[in-house]
Amino acid sequence: MTADARRPEFTAEQLAEVRRLQGLYPDKRGALLPVLHLAQDTFGYISLEVEEYVAQLFELYPAHVHEVVTFYTLFFQKPKGRHVVSVCHNLSCYLMNAKGIVQHLEERLGVAPGETTPDGRVTFLTVECLCACEQAPMMQVDDRYEGNLTPEKVDRILDGLP
Amino acid sequence: MSENKTAEKIFTRNFHLADSHTLVRYREHGGYAALPKALGMEPAAITEEIKKANLRGLGGAAFPTGVKWGFIPKGSTDPKYLVINADEGEPGTFKDRYLMERDPHAMVEGMVIAARAIGSHLGFVYIRGEYVKPWRIVDGAVTEAYGAGFLGKNIQGSGFDFDIVIHRGAGAYICGEETGLLSSLEGKKGWPKIKPPFPAVKGAFGHPTIVNNVETIMAVPQIINRGAEWFAGLGTKSQGGTRLYSVSGHVERPGVVEAPVSVTLRELIYEHCGGIRGGRTLKAVVPGGASAAILTPDEIDIQMDVEGPKSKGSMIGSAGIIVMDDTVSIPEALMIVARFYAHESCGQCTPCRESTGWIYKMSRRIVEGKGRKEDLDTILDVAKRGAGTTICAFYDGAVGPYISYIEKFRAEFEDLIRNAHA
Q1: What fold, for B3-234?
Q2: Chain B contact for A132, CB < 8 A?
Q3: Which of A102, A134, A135 to mutate to test the interface with B (most CBs of B within 10 A)?
Q4: Closest CA to B29 of B233, B221, B256
C-alpha cells in the first residue's frame, strides 16, 4: 500500500468513483459509508487527515465524518495489521467454546483482543455476532468466514495467511 | 399436518442446485415468471394479494407486509424508496446470509414487484459490512438482472423503471433497526428516529420508504406465482407461509430449517435438528434471537408462528433458535448477552445507554463471584423501569433476556451470590 493516511489523496480514477457513488443517492451524503470503505481500502485506516479529506469531498465538517467513523466497528482509526482476525464471542459461539478459541489465539499471537502483533501481521479482535452461528465457534479472517473452529484449525488458518 | 404441507419449500427450493445464485439457474426453475404477471397488475392489487397471503415481516417485528406497503401515502408525487434490510445481526440468526448467497435473484425479483406495488423507482439493499461474500453475490445478481432487462429502464417493455443500489454497512447492530438503518443509509451514525412519522410517510432522505427484510421480500414472487390462498394456507391463522428457522447451539445438526410456521419448537429441536448433542438434556432455549425471552423445557410445545412464543411471554423475532443443554451456566449466558447489549447500545437514549452498561457490569460481577444480594432485584427493577421508554425497540429487546434469565433461573444466580459471601 503506497497511499499515505497522513497525506491522503485519491487518484483521478478514485475521485471519479467518489462522484459516481455520490450520484447514486438522492443526497450525496448517502455515499459517505461507501466512500469511507474506499478510503480505508486505499489508505489502510481512517486517520484524522482522512476524515478531513473525506469531509471536503462531501462538503461536511470533519466532526460529522468523525462521529460516523467512530460509530462503526469496521472503520479503524489506527493502522491495522495486514490481516484482521475477528472471533465471535456472542451467545451461540460462547456455547460452542469461543472462549477456548480466544485463549488459543491470545497465546499463539501473544497479544490481547484489540491489539496488533508487533510484526504488524495480525490485528486480533473479539466481535459480536457475525451471524454464522450454525458453524460456531467461528471467526472472520479478512473477508472470509471460518467456522467449526478448533485450536488445530485456527493454527492451520493462521499458517496459511500470506 | 399433511406430508405435502410439511415438504413445501418456498425459500430453500433452489438451495440444492449447483450455481443456484445465477440468473440462468434461477430462470430454469421458474424465476422471473412472477415479474411480468405483477407488471400487468394494478399496483393496489399486488398489495392486496400480499395482505391476503398473510405474509408477516420475517426480520423480527412480524408486521403484516401488505399493510405496511399500504401506508405509502396515496397519490403522493414524492419519490418513494424501497429498502431491503440485509443488515442481519440478531444473535442466533443466519438465514438471510443463506438466502443472499444461494438465491439472490429471488430478492431482486421480489424487489421489482414490491417497487411496482408502492410506486418506487429506486431501491437499496443495505447489507451488513461483514457480509462480504453475500455482498459480492448480490452485486453479481443485480448486474445480471440489469443485463437481462429485469432492472433499469422500461423493465421487460412494461414502461416501469426501477434501479437497485447496494449499500454496505460498517458494523453496528443498531442499523438492523429500520430507522437506524435509514440514518446509516443517509450517511450518518445509525441513530434510530422517533416514530411517527413512520418511514412509509417520511423515511429515507425524508421521502416515503418501505423497509422489508430479505426473507420477507423473497416470499413475494412465490405469492404472485402461486396465489395468496396457497401461501396463507401453508401457515396458521396469525401468519401465512413457511419461514426459515436458524438453529444453533447444542443440537446435533445446527443449520437453517424451512418449515411451515405451524411447526413446534419441540419438532424443530428434536426432529429437524436431531435433538440435543450427545444425548444430553435440554436446559433452556431462546426461540427468536438473543432479544427473545428464554424458554424452559416445559415451554417448547408451541407453534413457531407469531403467536406461539408470545403465549409464553417471548417472541418469534428473527426465528433464531439458540439451544442450551444442561452444561450451560445461565448467569454466564446472561453476562454474554448483557455484554452484547452494552456494546451495541447506540447511546442515544439515557435509559438504554446507562442500563445496558450497568447491567453488564452487575452480571459480570455475579459470574466472577463478587455478586451482591441486592443485584438481582436491582437488575430486574432497572430492566422493568426502562422498558418502553426509549426511541426504538433495542432496549425492550435487551430487557427480554435480563428479566427471563433471572426470573426463570433465579436459584442459579442466588447460588453464585451466596457462594460469593460464603
Answers
A1: Rossmann fold (3.40.50)
A2: yes
A3: A134
A4: B221
pLDDT digits (tens, 9 = 90+) for B308-343: 999 999 999 999 999 999 999 999 999 999 999 999
pLDDT of residue B420: 81
* Residues in chain A within 8 Å Cβ distance of B184: 33
CB contact under 8 A, A33 and B343: no
Residue showing cell 429487546: B397
Measure the CA–CA gap between A135 and A128, rounded to whole angstroms: 15
Report the alpha-carbon distance of residue B87 to residue B370 in Å, rounded: 37
Q: What ipTM, to 2 d.p.?
A: 0.97
**Which parts of B255-306 fold into alpha helices (H)?**
265-267
Taking CA atoms, what residue in B is nearest to A23?
A: B165
Residues in chain A closer than 8 A to B340 (CB atoms)? 90-91, 128-129
pLDDT tens for residues B251-267? 999 999 999 999 999 99
The residue extents of the domains of chain B are 3-234, 242-325, 330-420
> Which class in CATH covers the domain with range B242-325?
alpha beta
**CATH of region B330-420, choose from 1.10.230.10, 3.30.565.10, 2.120.10.30, 1.20.1440.230:** 1.20.1440.230
Residues A106 and A152 reside in one and the same domain = yes
Those residues of chain B that have pLDDT short of 50 are 1-4
Rounded to a whole number, what is the distance in Å from the CA of A111 to chain B's nearest CA?
Answer: 21
Residues 6+ apart with CB under 8 A from B283: B297, B324, B325, B326, B327, B328, B330
Residue pLDDT, tens place only, B101-153: 999 999 999 999 999 999 999 999 999 999 999 999 999 999 999 999 999 99
